[in-house]
Amino acid sequence: MSVVLSSNEAATAVEEHSERKVLGLTPDGWLRILMPMLIGFLALGAWEWAVRAKEIPSYILPGPIEIGRTLLTDWGTLSGSLLITLQITFAALTVAAVLGLALAVLFAQSRIIELSLFPYAVILQVTPIVAIAPLIFIWVDDIRIALLICAWIVAFFPILSNTTLGLNSADHNLVDLFRLYRANRWQVLRYLRLPTAMPYFLAGLRISGGLALIGAIVAEFVAGTGGRASGLAYRILEAGYQLKIPRMFASLVLISVTGIAIFLALSLISHLALRHWHESAMKERK
């Protein structure tokens, strides 16, 4: 018995075949992973070949293999510094998220407050952190708190601005409907404005995750403090002074990997929070 498929059924069958998963990933998903890895391996191979072919000394430019070897041998020192940098980064990101969300909610409730305070948030954002960090270290006795303030200043504005935009982006027709049903300010905020602002808040959080790490590193450079407060930035300075360039590159690798890990973790949180109800994270349904 022959079976004749309609054009729609045939198209659906082709789509299902093309979206067949291998180890939990579609061909497009594997392409997104394997192509950047291929480019990365080729770049590292070319780097290692150039260093060996030109006989470049390690105190000028170490190769990837030597950097990896240094990362393993100096892991005891570098891991402790990484932990300190991560503590400052996540503390600054947490404070930035809480204060940014709270202040954005306040702005959404009062246009006058927003017009009065938002320009100062802009001024805080556009002022280079390297220019005000020395003053912060003079005014604040505790080095950890000073580092936290510097990292918070860098990470604060994207959350505030994105969340404020999200809260003000609620559909005006829905706002009028809530008012028609005599909903109070808290109900409008809870059931309409906050859900509308959630994707904006999470987008700002992803941006601020990397900025908090950058702020922590820059603050550590300015502080230049060793001992218990020695983060990865101090290890870079220390390695530069001692001409231990492989350790410097190993510290840079840790910073880069940490930044990527933070972005991926926050992207995963955003996807899990939005995947069931927001168009930006929902899969297209045919």
Automatic annotation (TrEMBL):
Pfam families: BPD_transp_1. Residues 82-270 form the ABC transmembrane type-1 domain. SUPFAM superfamilies: MetI-like (SSF161098). The chain crosses the membrane at residues 30-50, 82-108, 120-139, 145-167, 213-237, 249-274. It is found in: Cell membrane. Gene3D superfamilies: MetI-like (1.10.3720.10). It is a multi-pass membrane protein. GO terms for biological process: transmembrane transport. Keywords: Cell membrane, Membrane, Transmembrane, Transmembrane helix, Transport. One of its GO terms (cellular component) is plasma membrane. Signal peptide: none annotated. PROSITE patterns: ABC_TM1. InterPro entries: MetI-like, MetI-like_sf. The keyword Lipid biosynthesis does not apply. It comes from the Bacteria. Belongs to the binding-protein-dependent transport system permease family. This is NitT/TauT family transport system permease protein.
